[in-house]
Amino acid sequence: MKILEVKNIDRLVEKVLPKTPQKNKRIVESILADVQKNGDRAVKKYEKKFDKASINSLRVTESEIGQAYEEVSDNQIEAIHKMAIFVTAREEILKDIKIPQKKYEDLASFEKMVYRKFVPIPSVGCYVPGGLARYPSSAVMSIVPAKVAGVKRVVVVSPPNQNGKIDPLTLVACYMCGANEIYKIGGAQAIGALAYGTKSIKKVNKIVGPGGSFVSIAKALVCDTVSIDMIAGPTELGIIADTSVDPNLIVNDLFSQAEHSKDTFCFVITTSRKLAEKINKIMNEKISQVSRSSIIKKSLSKNGFIAVCKKESDMITLANELAPEHLQIMTRTSKKLAAKIDNAGLILLGKRTPSAFTDYLLGTNHILPTSGFAKVRGGLSVLDFMKLKTEVRIPSDDSVRNVSSIMKELTDAEQLPNHYEAIRSRFE
Questions:
Q1: What is residue 375's three-state secondary structure?
Q2: Catalytic residues
Q3: Which terminal Cβ of the chain has fewer Cβ within 10 Å, N or C?
Q4: Domains of the chain
Q5: Contact 192/36 with Cβ under 8 angstroms?
Q6: What is residue 266's three-state secondary structure?
């Protein structure tokens, strides 16, 4: 990994943040246009091209689900079940949170006029990645919050293998968590199908879930047609560390994140040049010995770096500007530093809390914002699958008559006299 001395934070951020190649954007635009025009035919064409899969029927059948159960172990099923329980518990707690309502004397007459509650959105499409690895965990993380919210139609899309089959454990996870429809498609073509609809796949109201570069580009491009949760991928890991931590732990954590894909964005921030050099030394010694080493090498050489800052405040500023998906803080004062971090999808404190742990257990969602989205939102939750429904009912003339003069001032100020007339004609 590159070791960079931090002199100008803004300049460094501009230099290290991954850029989306315009070529990739044009490719995705072409795929989406084709899917919008030609539907299933286009989807099948791109599955053949990118996943080498010849697919007759896009939807997974009951028979395929039954076969998937035969190909997985009881222990694997139990692990998925436990993960789903943890996620369900966290989401149920969040769903049931009651926000206390303050009483305002001036609003006494309006107290019973406005009624608000959260209701589920009608349908959602969950993208579950495949390709270089299997991700039944992502199925749990996207489907469970949707079901807790009460979404009636939960659709899953996931890339098939060359035999035209979804990974069996992923398929089992989708079924166990309550997916209503499952389709054997991935990539930008899957996002297009969910956004625009095809003969086989009815369009959804919202698309959620992580994915690679093409999936993220596609989600960004279709958001004028369908709602999306966030840009969630390629994955990111930032680590703030000092000399109190074993550099071997840092290297292991970098490897665990970088093995996802060659596009992973991983970095370390420290004030110790000595620590940076130790990390690099250990990494070079170990990298050829670990599984998926070719992916890890490409990822860390392409997007990885170690930033050496002059002082602690620079580390905090840099971390907030980079706004990574995961931010591990492994320092003597991790709690103190965490309190100053506003921009991270998930903050993990201490040497015992690697991002790999929270990818599966504890109930925290591993579908998290990337590409700077952590500056404006957190991870996926039950709230992403609900909307605020507001009803207004004015019970009597007296309820509003006492504020009509205020309405007159406001409508006159905005030169919208008919607004006031609509009110006056009812209550005066």
A1: helix
A2: 325-326
A3: C
A4: 2-16+234-362 (3.40.50.1980), 22-228 (3.40.50.1980), 396-427 (no CATH)
A5: yes
A6: strand
